[in-house]
Prior knowledge:
Layout lengths: L1 H21 L4 E4 L4 E2 L3 E8 L4 E10 L2 E9 L16 E7 L10 E11 L6 E10 L5 E4 L4 E4 L3 E9 L4 E6 L2 E4 L1 E3 L2 E10 L11 E5 L5 E5 L2 E4 L5 E5 L2 H11 L7 H22 L21 E4 L3 E7 L2 E8 L2 E4 L5 E3 L4 E8 L5 E6 L4 E8 L1 E2 L6 E2 L4 E4 L11 E7 L2 E3 L1 H5 L1 H7 L9 H10 L9 E2 L5
Parallel strand pairs: 2-8, 10-18, 19-21, 20-33
Antiparallel strand pairs: 1-3, 3-6, 4-5, 4-7, 7-8, 9-11, 11-15, 12-13, 12-16, 14-15, 16-17, 20-23, 21-22, 23-31, 24-30, 25-26, 25-29, 26-27, 27-31, 28-30, 31-32
Helix pairs in contact: 2-3
Amino acid sequence: MRIAAVLILLAVVLAGAVLVFLSGATEIKIRPVTAIGLDTPLAAQLANRHGVRGAAAFVEQDGVRHKVFEQEMDGASRFFFWWRNDPPAEVSFRAGKKQAPALKDGKARLIVAARSNDLLARTHEAAIEVQVITRPPSVAADGEQHYINQGGSELVTFTVSGYWTEAGVRVGKYTFRSFPLGSDENRRFSLFAYPWDTPPGTVPVVYARNPAGAEAQARFWHKVFPKNFRRRDLELPDSFLDKVTNEIDAGGSGDRVARFLKINGELRRRNNETLAGLRSKTEPRFLWDGPFVQLSNSKVESQFADIRSYLYQGKKIDEQTHLGFDLSVTANVGVAASNSGKVVLAEYLGIYGNCVVVDHGYGLQSIYAHLSKIEVKPGEAVKKGQTLGRSGATGLAGGDHLHYGVYLHGVAVLPVEWWDGKWIADNITPKLEGRSGQEIAEAQQAAKPKAKGKAKAGKRKR
């Protein structure tokens, strides 16, 4: 009997030791943040293969901890944890002066604590240094008059003060970054668009915000000229569907109309996301020289923001917006850079076929699509008039032409404004008088009006 009791005791001790051995530490990763303000959204990842029983967050300042969050987890069990293999848990919470009124501006520590779901239920912590910032920055826009075409471009200057880390222009759902005017980081300018799909009543604002989430906004004088963009019907013959699907969706199977719709919708969105993402590759300096140049002797086949209804056998099957100009001369004509800059993309890009994108600095970029041949490489500096490739019908094109577009911070804008030296001199360079030294002089010289040729209208192309 005594031996049996000893064996039972040993078994219990051994089981307890195993359970303690199986207990593990919780790994805590706080999503990076540098500041908290009045009510800042935060998050952390808690990783423990046995799960987490509870979590809490604190802001510690001057040796005092202020609890801002606490949560008990569902399904926790102290004794039946060994069989669990839980994925990392995400917790989201808010912290700031709203949750802890005693906080004041200055240094602090953000602490996240997690209690493990095991026999010992140990609490583990992780902490990062933060700044408490409750005062928002301030921003003041210039006193200039801003006349803006719907779908067009404009430039605004403004001054920021206080603690800020991001400043620019917001137009509805779109944001446009800013750059310093000369050596003073607080004096800024932004080339921005009033996008084609933005309702004319939308008010553009300059803004400044800090990592704590505090944001200041200011309006500026503006007048928007609404545009009634054209609507066009495009009949899709079987020969065109075969050409497009065989080239872009080579090896694909299924109904050719369904394949075309996938190309015209899903692939178009992905390609446009690629073009928009190139805004991160812009140079913080002027690379262009004078007005942009339309493809020599070209006819305009399709205009910016044409709304296209795609018809198959007389029935509408899709609708998309054409965000550029289609220009034609003759087959396989040399395509020149419309202005000086640096190549940031030169590759086959889905509906755009062989495509080149040139960055002109400060968020301004131009696109050349449907080329039969590309003759430049990414990273290459190009001069206005330098050949980039040859026109063609690659991608979603029904005939040889150049799809030409201009983008501001990833948003397509009216190209004709940038072909017009007088428009540049009236709308861009006068607002840059705050720039210092050689750069503003070069910018003003670049925008001097030159002889302007009118775009010739012609037939539409796909």
